[in-house]
C-alpha cells in the first residue's frame, strides 16, 4: 500500500505541513500554545512554523521524517533520543505538567513525539513504515510515546506494534482547550537486548 510513497528526512520547507500534523497528533494543544506565544495578537500557525524551524528544541525539522506522495507531505514522525537534557519545548503551564512528568519516566528511550497522517492517507500503512524507521533510528533504545486514552484507533495501532502502558496521568484542560479522553498514557515498546 505504501509503494507510491517516499519516506525522507524533513526539511525546513516542510514546516507548514509539519505544524498542521503536529497539531493533529497533539490534539490541538500546539495551536493553543502557539496562540499564547504570540500573546493572541499574531498568527499562531506562523509561530508554529518558527518553532519547527528552531533547532534549539527537539521538536524541529531535523528530527522529522515525512512520507510524501509526489510533492505532497502526507505523514510525519518526529522522534529523538530522550535524555535528561533534551529540550522538548513544553511551556510552563498546568496543561503540560502531566506530559512533562510522563516524559521524565521515559528518559533513556527513543521518544516518538509525533506520528500523524492527514486523514485521507490513513490506513495505508504509513504509520507502520514510520515506526519501523523509528526502530532503525533508535540505536537499540526502548521506544516510548504518549497518547490520549480517548484515541482508540491509535491505542489499537500501538498495541499491535507491541507497545504497553507504563504509566498514566490525568489530562489537564482549560476553558479554551479540551482533549478527548481523561488520561495521557505513556506507552513503551521494550527492545530486545
Description:
- The chain is α+β, with helices and mostly antiparallel strands.
- The longest helix has 12 residues.
- Helix 1 packs across helix 3 and helix 2 crosses helix 3.
- The protein is 31% helix and 25% strand.
- A 7-stranded mixed sheet has the order 1-2-3-4-5-7-6, with helices on both faces.
- The protein has 6 helices and 7 strands; from the N terminus they run βαααββαβαβαββ.
- The mean pLDDT is 92.
Structural class: alpha+beta
E-strand count: 7
Q: What is the percent of helical residues?
A: 25-40%
Name the strands of the widest sheet in spatial order.
1-2-3-4-5-7-6
Distance N to C terminus: 31 Å
* Global shape: globular
List the helices and strands and how they pair.
Blueprint: E1 6-9, H1 15-25, H2 29-37, H3 44-53, E2 64-69, E3 72-81, H4 97-104, E4 110-117, H5 126-137, E5 143-148, H6 152-160, E6 164-170, E7 183-189
Outline:
The chain has 193 residues and is α+β, with helices and mostly antiparallel strands. The chain has helices spanning 15-25, 29-37, 44-53, 97-104, 126-137, 152-160; strands at 6-9, 64-69, 72-81, 110-117, 143-148, 164-170, 183-189.
Amino acid at each position: 500500500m505504501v509503494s507510491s510513497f517516499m519516506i525522507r528526512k524533513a526539511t525546513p520547507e516542510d514546516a507548514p505541513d509539519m505544524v498542521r500534523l503536529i497539531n493533529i497528533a497533539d490534539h490541538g494543544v500546539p495551536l493553543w500554545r502557539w496562540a499564547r506565544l504570540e500573546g493572541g495578537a499574531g498568527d499562531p500557525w506562523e509561530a508554529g512554523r518558527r518553532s519547527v524551524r528552531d533547532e534549539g528544541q527537539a521538536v524541529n525539522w531535523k528530527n522529522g521524517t515525512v512520507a510524501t506522495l509526489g510533492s505532497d507531505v502526507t505523514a510525519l514522525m518526529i522522534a529523538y533520543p530522550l535524555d535528561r537534557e533534551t529540550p522538548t519545548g513544553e511551556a510552563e503551564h498546568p496543561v503540560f505538567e502531566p506530559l512533562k512528568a510522563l516524559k521524565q519516566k521515559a528518559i533513556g528511550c527513543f521518544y516518538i513525539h509525533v506520528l500523524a497522517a492527514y486523514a485521507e492517507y490513513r490506513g495505508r500503512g504509513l504509520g507502520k513504515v514510520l515506526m519501523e524507521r523509528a526502530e532503525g533510528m533508535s540505536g537499540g533504545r526502548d521506544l516510548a510515546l504518549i497518547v490520549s486514552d480517548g484515541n482508540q484507533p491509535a491505542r489499537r495501532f500501538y498495541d499491535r506494534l507491541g507497545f504497553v502502558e507504563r504509566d498514566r496521568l490525568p489530562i489537564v484542560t482549560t476553558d479554551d482547550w479540551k482533549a478527548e479522553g481523561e488520561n495521557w498514557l505513556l506507552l513503551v515498546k521494550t527492545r530486545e537486548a
